[in-house]
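TEACHING EXERCISE
Course module: macromolecular assemblies
Task: Read the component lines below, then compare them to the predicted structure of the full complex.
Student: A.B.
Group: 4
Components provided:
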Amino acid sequence: MESFEINKEDLERIKTALGGDDAELEKVLAEYHASEIAILFEQLPLEAREKIINILPTEEASEVISEMNEEQDPGELLISLHPEKRSEIIEELDYDDATDIISQLEEHEQKEILEDLDEEDASNIRALLGYAEDTAGGLMNSQVIKVNIYLDKKDALDEIIRQSEEMEEFNTIYAVDEFDVLKGILSIKSIIKAHANTWIENLVIKDFVYVKADLDQEEVAKLISQYNLTAIPVVDDHMKLLGRITVDDIIDVMEEESTEDILKISGVSEDEELSGNWKAAVKSRLPWLIINLGTAYLAASIIRHFDTTIERIAIISAYMTIIAGMGGNAATQALAVTVRRISLSDLTDRQAYNTVLKEFLVGLINGAANGLIVFFIAMIYDANLKLGLVLFLAMTGNLIIAGLTGATIPLVLKRVGIDPAVASSIIITTFTDCAGFLLPLWLATQFLLPHH
Amino acid sequence: MESFEINKEDLERIKTALGGDDAELEKVLAEYHASEIAILFEQLPLEAREKIINILPTEEASEVISEMNEEQDPGELLISLHPEKRSEIIEELDYDDATDIISQLEEHEQKEILEDLDEEDASNIRALLGYAEDTAGGLMNSQVIKVNIYLDKKDALDEIIRQSEEMEEFNTIYAVDEFDVLKGILSIKSIIKAHANTWIENLVIKDFVYVKADLDQEEVAKLISQYNLTAIPVVDDHMKLLGRITVDDIIDVMEEESTEDILKISGVSEDEELSGNWKAAVKSRLPWLIINLGTAYLAASIIRHFDTTIERIAIISAYMTIIAGMGGNAATQALAVTVRRISLSDLTDRQAYNTVLKEFLVGLINGAANGLIVFFIAMIYDANLKLGLVLFLAMTGNLIIAGLTGATIPLVLKRVGIDPAVASSIIITTFTDCAGFLLPLWLATQFLLPHH
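Instructor-supplied answer key:
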């Protein structure tokens, strides 16, 4: 199979069916998976979405809504539905999904929705709304299968089957005491395979990985990936079981974090939505561009300082842009490798030292290689040995600076607690621009100006 | 809990224990999870790794080896072990993990290892070695729980428990016919809850998501994420069940693909390992830098063309670097958002058109905003209204070009089948550099040169 992508044929089919009678629409919709309908929603107006949700069976409708991504605004759709239909759909949703959607709405809309729900659902969702979105608490589902650790196999299995009524997956079961304190985890397999009279206490694993509700979601993702877990329990400060996070929730987190990394390293605010409108994009990018403008003036002030050199050797201003540009490129390379490396795991002092040393060497070699090319071009094109030497030295020097700053700046920022992806690229460009102008201009002034 | 990071205390403890007697070492190691030992291995030489693997219980040792990442070279460690110990460890590994490690070795080493294994394991691993590493076949584990679709509940459950002996997780069960053709999937929950006499045929879901063995791993990740699966079956062209891929394997794929995206967009070959040595880094980055040097000369040739203008208005060469640099920054922003967006999902023609239009608007507004700043600085600092206007126009023009190319180039590359992350950044920098030099120089020549 191939993943489902938006396409004209499917869109046309749905649109035609939307114009026809309900029975026809129902038949067409039955051929699509909920996540496919959610994708098609991207190209359908609110009224069409509403009509489709109203015609789908409640279970399917709630699945479509949980599959819509944040940018499609599933909350707006929920609010537009008849209160009864809406409550039915929310009751079908997992608590974590319902909370994600409701948290995007205005306070009075949240209140309205919660008032219509039955008390248990409402209080569960209210509790989840209290956690920050990017923490373990904000990710977790409070629906878990838990059994008292002092039961025997038979009673536990009955209890598990009873509780699993509303759960899709029940691979991991949590064993708690009478105060809901998490005591251990066990797999459905170990229960099924156990002899009839076995006590749950003897089946549980007591050395398990868990997280507190306020842990950052990036740390949760690291733990799940590091210990190869399919789910992780979330507890409060007294080890009381609050919920669990499953690996498929983490996939979304990882996608989100990678997007943020790519945006930040490119000078875009991490909050900019990929399909956001132009106003949001201007708001996210203009501040960064203005900071860049400041550093560009800093670099340009170096050029102003060498006015006389440029007036006499105009050609040097063409070459200096090449050397500054190449420095920027080489620094971006060193930066990307270093930032990505420290975002995947921390480095020891020795590893950090080796990274800087490596980037110095890479800068030296790549600088000398490109310096030689520039040297020969200057020899052939300008027939000027001295100019060639100046350019060779400037290129090598700037690529060494590029490698050193590209590796050092993110490592230093990380140690002082600043996100290296955000600030690194602006700092290193300033370095390579300044050095890229200063080196050729200063060297040219020293060695090429006749009356110096 | 926090994720485990390399730290001095744990390293010192292990190193001290390595110098002591075996009982002491065993005791210290027992306090670490296999994935933690794998992380500590990064800082331990081969002999130390060997000693630890030999002292650990086989099951734990095989887990440590499966947790080592590719860059730590688990194959080298396997080869260094006594053949008997080695075979024991490999037999404990999942087939897919064993295959990943063995595939990294030389052919004669692979042969040596496979000859020592029992026939079933060897032939399973041999089969997996035949699939390309980055396809569904290369990711899958051929160990699955499968039952004949024509069994009843009791026989099926017995069979499942028998097969689950060697599996950690058995949430998904595959129903096949007598030729191993995949007929449906079912959950352990549906079997447990079914009445005693139910036929498996009546429990299976027949409309399921599957992949062919040669599907690219990125597509597999998209499917698992799109349909929220915990596992996906892999079949051959005749729907014969070959294995399955679980969501935790996909987490590694996603991390890998994000790393590749970040590296490619920064002009680093996707094959460069983050912790690779300087030789590999030079090999990966130098070709890209040389291509960049070529485009830099292209842009610089524009500057050469305006020699006279620069000699007379030396200050313009400082301003042109600012305008070209700002264009590069704005284009990188537009590029990052567009590349990430199309790497997460395809765009319809209308969405593509809207993206370009949005980036044009963003370029216009951000260009005008920065153009105003540059205008006022030229008025204050150089007291030159004409210069201010030239710079305003050049800045606005170049940021519009930056937005248009930053959005259009990746969209066009994607349509013609070229990976937009690889080639985009070099193409747009060429555009913004050329326009960044051409616009201010040409405008200055037109409006600022006295004797034009």
